[in-house]
Design a protein that fits this description.
The structure holds two protein chains of two kinds.
Chain A (H helix, E strand, L loop, with lengths): L6 H31 L4 H7 L5 H11 L5 H13 L13 H36 L4 H15 L2 H15 L22 H8 L2 H38 L2 H8 L4 H38 L5 H10 L3 H29 L1 H5 L1
Chain B lengths: L11 E12 L2 E13 L4 E5 L6 H8 L7 E10 L2 E2 L5 H7 L4 E4 L13 H11 L8 H11 L5 H5 L8 H13 L5 E5 L7 H18 L2 E6 L2 H7 L2 E6 L2 E7 H6 L4 H9 L29 H6 L7 E10 L7 E11 L4 E5 L6 H8 L7 E6 L2 E2 L5 H10 E4 L13 H11 L5 H14 L16 H13 L5 E5 L7 H18 L2 E6 L2 H7 L2 E6 L2 E7 H6 L4 H9 L17
Parallel strand pairs in B: 3-8, 3-9, 6-7, 7-8, 13-18, 13-19, 16-17, 17-18
Antiparallel strand pairs in B: 1-2, 1-4, 4-5, 9-10, 11-12, 11-14, 14-15, 19-20
Helix pairs in contact in B: 3-4, 3-6, 6-7, 7-20, 14-15, 14-16, 15-16, 16-17
The chains are: A mainly alpha, B alpha/beta.
């Protein structure tokens, strides 16, 4: 086990993962392609409804190329995909990519808020529980995190909205920003825009709009992170090297940060990556409840309207995103744990 | 900070110490009325088995009892200061600064996520003995004193990049970085290879002598204790049963427990288990030299060896680097009813060889015959027969038994797998086997977690015996056990061999244990057999320099203490 230059293994890891993306996406594209072509009565009937005339069906087939041989259709589809052409939404008639590009920033803002919330509360909660294991504080934390996992996202979303927005009126009920605020937008990241233009009231309003959906979205990850942190800290705090740290006479704070938490964070990091990927599916429900105009809400509309180019594009996009997030997590894992770097 | 000691006053004085642990089953007394006194600059060893309270006593002295343990009585005076009841905030300034600790397991005692240099440096920084500007040079200096080559480069490495021996040196550097008055060394070498052990202990001796530190050595190994310490304290079940001058205790133990410990210590005892091993025909266990298999095989009537291993090689391809040869051209024979031991340190290829014989891994080249049949090409009925006639007992009785099965089910399982008898007959056989290994019948309903290490190893042996095998491959079967239990298990193995005519392939890193059980010994190093001969030959007339080094590393070997009048020297 000779340590090489530290950059090389990381670059190799990135390269290998990106190469692995190719077969993954290739397989996924075949599945999606097969799915659309196997819709009952064919994609055209699915679009037009059962009572569509044969002429209308033929017209749609010709327009979308469904009348061509399957292999040719697939290559056309793949060719476009590789050029970044994900097709056109049947409902809005705009390119899928454009629709995403416009809504994705909203979901990113929401997800970042949710995950920051989950980490900022979950890790201290888990640590606190572990340090008080067997006492009432631990029981409280365990029950809370169990509740966090078992309460359905949409129910929590409704509950938060009803209590804090409707009843108490502390926070806005829906949307991304108060329309009465005259905010300048360079990008679709509203908080960011507010900060760089110096319109702090606009940024603050955008943040307020993130609070309730962010909490709703972040609660499950929070509960899971708290539980993993608790288990992991329990494990690490009895490790021999923690005793050695105490034998050196180190201060308790240093032992906590450099010895217990840094080692306990390893499993938490893995969980975090998985949770980030799952946030998108949670966003479908949360964004719908809070009329938050991100890709989650857009997707739920696409499902009801059978807007399959959007669904197809969305699934490919999510697969890419998920892979990239996990790649980032694996790299950051190496930053925390030197043992991973070498192998 | 130079402290002047009064020669009369001990540096560490423990009086009537009681330590209790709160467990779910109530309070357990771990140490009861223990007293000891360590003069400044001296070395005192506490000897005992696991559960004797030796480590607990030491941990109480440095204020590092686990969360559920506390001192309930007595006093610990260190350099005139009472440590019992001292708040942690004050104790912190003594730990690391004035009392250093070298812990047992170098694999688990270093923080895996920070560089070793930092782990040494933080001790110096915490106690104000270094500044951020000077710490780097000071760390390198301490590492050099601890015998770490290329200290500057090593300081930037992480623990997993270092070998066990180097990690233990890092721990020594941590323990002695602040030049403490007292060093507690808690089994500092028991996790290391035997040749490394010696060097590490020498390093501790040298450094503490230089610094004038006293040493409190905790060990289960009586031979090691007597070699390193002037004063011995023998602990048993939480109490001090004997204390005094090391040599006096070893030569004339007063307490019955100490006597049994001295008698069982494999490093001190001679080859008592095996008077037959001293056959007058010493010759190497060379290939094609059937005559040299000596009278052990002759006595067993059948001259053909049970197992013949020829030029066995196992190569593991390593990506981007040279292939790793785990075993190279290993040849050995196992006569019927005899014990052949393979001795070597970690990485010597002994376990690889055993696994190939068990047909758990495929060799790259070479051949194995078992009772005249080629093992490597075995298929179908032959393989099934082979699997029943060759059994294994592994090192760790804590992980090699399924924790969710009862002892009865564990022993019956091989019978069930090969459809031997019906349920009643299998139960009967299991009870019979338990009797053979001296386990009480009511244990068959118990779970492994309710058993001690020695009892578990008996279960593992009973399971191995269930199918009436000809050969049992024992891979470090006693190295996880306390010394008295070790002796009992070795006795059992020997006794079973005599009664059932078993052959053993005995894998061990511990020459002292090997000596008690072996007819023949193969010494392995770096994948190759460097020396193979009868047990007597190896121990009285080692030829290969490595064998000599191994023998010299047995703690207590130079003590020249003989039990039961055995007068032979190594």
């Amino acid at each position: 086990m000779r340590p090489g230059p530290e950059e090389t293994p990381v670059l190799r890891l990135i390269g290998r993962r990106l190469l692995l993306l190719i077969p993954t996406l290739f397989g996924l594209s075949i599945l999606l392609f097969a799915w659309v072509r196997s819709l009952p009565g064919g994609p055209a009937t699915a679009l037009l409804g059962d009572r569509a005339t044969p002429e209308a069906v033929a017209r749609v087939n010709a327009a979308y190329g469904f009348d061509k041989p399957l292999v040719e259709q697939y290559f056309t589809y793949m060719g476009k995909l590789l050029q970044g052409d994900f097709g056109t939404s049947i409902v809005t008639n705009r390119p899928v990519v454009e629709e995403f590009a416009q809504r994705f920033p909203a979901t990113v803002e929401l997800s970042v808020f949710a995950i920051v919330f989950a980490v900022a509360i979950g890790i201290p909660l888990g640590y606190w529980a572990a340090r008080h294991v067997g006492r009432w504080q631990d029981d409280v934390a365990v029950v809370l995190s169990l509740l966090g996992v078992v309460v359905p996202v949409f129910f929590l979303a409704f509950l938060l909205k009803w209590l804090f927005a409707v009843k108490l009126g502390w926070l806005p009920t829906d949307g991304r920003q108060d329309p009465r605020i005259d905010a300048t937008h360079y990008t679709d990241f509203y908080v960011w825009d507010g900060l760089i233009t110096g319109e702090y009231d606009a940024a603050w309003d955008a943040i307020l709009h993130l609070v309730l959906p962010g909490i709703a979205l972040g609660t499950i990850p929070l509960a899971i992170i708290a539980r993993i942190t608790r288990a992991s800290v329990l494990d690490v705090q009895n490790a021999d090297f923690v005793r050695t740290a105490r034998a050196k006479g180190l201060a308790p704070g240093l032992i906590r940060n450099r010895f217990i938490l840094r080692n306990a964070m390893l499993p938490v990091t893995t969980t975090l990556g998985l949770q980030l990927g799952l946030l998108i599916s949670g966003a479908v429900l949360t964004e719908t409840v809070f009329a938050f105009n991100g890709i989650g809400r857009f997707l739920s509309q696409a499902i009801f309207q059978l807007d399959f180019p959007v669904l197809q594009g969305f699934i490919i996009f999510i697969a890419l995103l998920y892979s990239l997030i996990n790649l980032v997590v694996d790299i950051s894992y190496g930053l925390i744990d030197p043992r991973v770097r070498v192998s | 900070m130079d402290t002047h000691h009064n020669d009369a006053a001990p540096l560490l004085e423990i009086r009537d110490l009681d330590v209790e642990f709160a467990t779910q089953q109530g309070t357990v007394t771990a140490v009861e009325g223990a007293s000891l006194s360590l003069p400044a600059g001296g070395t005192l060893a506490i000897v005992g088995e696991s559960g004797s309270g030796k480590s607990t006593t030491a941990m109480a002295a440095i204020g590092l009892l686990p969360g559920n343990g506390r001192v309930t009585g007595g006093s610990i005076r260190f350099d005139g200061q009472e440590l019992v009841g001292l708040p942690d905030a004050k104790m912190r300034h003594i730990r690391g600064r004035r009392i250093g600790l070298v812990p047992q397991d170098p694999m688990s005692n270093l923080n895996p996520v920070t560089r070793v240099g930092q782990q040494i440096g933080e001790t110096l920084l915490t106690h104000g003995l270094a500044t951020k500007a000077t710490v780097k040079d000071q760390v390198v200096e301490v590492m050099e004193r601890a015998g770490i080559p290329e200290a500057e480069r090593r300081a930037r490495q992480y623990p997993h990049e270092l070998s066990g021996g180097l990690r233990q040196r890092v721990l020594i550097a941590i323990g002695l970085a602040c030049r403490p008055q007292l060093l507690i060394a808690d089994e500092p070498t028991s996790a290391l290879d035997v040749t490394v052990q010696q060097v590490i202990l020498d390093q501790i001796d040298e450094m503490t002598r230089e610094l004038g530190s006293s040493v409190l050595l905790i060990t289960h190994d009586l031979g090691l204790a007597a070699e390193r310490a002037q004063q011995l304290v023998v602990m048993h079940r939480g109490r001090v049963v004997e204390a005094g001058d090391a040599r006096a205790i070893l030569e004339d133990p007063q307490h019955s427990y100490t006597r049994s410990l001295v008698a069982a210590a494999p490093s001190v005892a001679a080859a008592r288990l095996l008077p037959e091993a001293f056959d007058p025909a010493p010759a190497a266990l060379a290939e094609d030299d059937t005559a040299s298999l000596s009278t052990v095989a002759l006595r067993k009537k059948d001259l053909t060896p049970l197992v013949e291993i020829r030029d066995l090689t196992k190569v593991y391809p390593v990506r981007g680097r040279e292939d790793f040869t785990a075993a190279k051209d290993v040849s050995l024979k196992i006569p019927r009813g005899a014990t052949v031991s393979v001795v070597g340190e970690s990485g010597s290829g002994k376990t690889t060889t055993a696994r190939m014989l068990l047909k758990l891994i495929e060799p790259t080249s070479g051949e194995i015959t078992f009772d005249g049949k080629d093992v490597l090409g075995m298929r179908g009925a032959d393989l099934k027969d082979f699997r029943q006639r060759v059994q294994a007992v592994f090192q760790d009785p804590f992980s090699s038994l399924n924790p969710s099965f009862t002892v009865g089910r564990i022993i019956e399982e091989p019978l069930q797998a090969y459809r031997r008898g019906n349920a009643t007959e299998r139960r009967k056989r299991a009870l019979e086997l338990m009797e053979q290994v001296a386990l009480p019948a009511h244990f068959h309903r118990r779970y492994p977690s309710e058993l001690s290490g020695g009892q578990r190893q008996r279960v593992a042996i009973a399971r191995a015996l269930a199918l009436e095998p000809d050969l049992i491959v024992c891979d470090e079967p006693v190295s996880a056990l306390d010394v008295l239990v070790q002796a009992q298990i070795l006795d059992l193995l020997k006794d079973l061999q005599d009664r059932l005519g078993l052959s053993y392939l005995f894998i061990s890193h511990d020459l002292a244990v090997v000596r008690l059980i072996s007819d023949y010994v193969c010494v392995m190093k770096d994948g190759e057999v460097v020396e193979a001969a009868s047990s007597e030959e190896i121990f009285t007339n080692p030829r290969h320099p490595y064998t000599r080094r191994l023998l010299a590393s047995i703690p207590g070997n130079e003590l020249d203490i003989r039990v039961e009048g055995d007068g032979e020297h190594v």
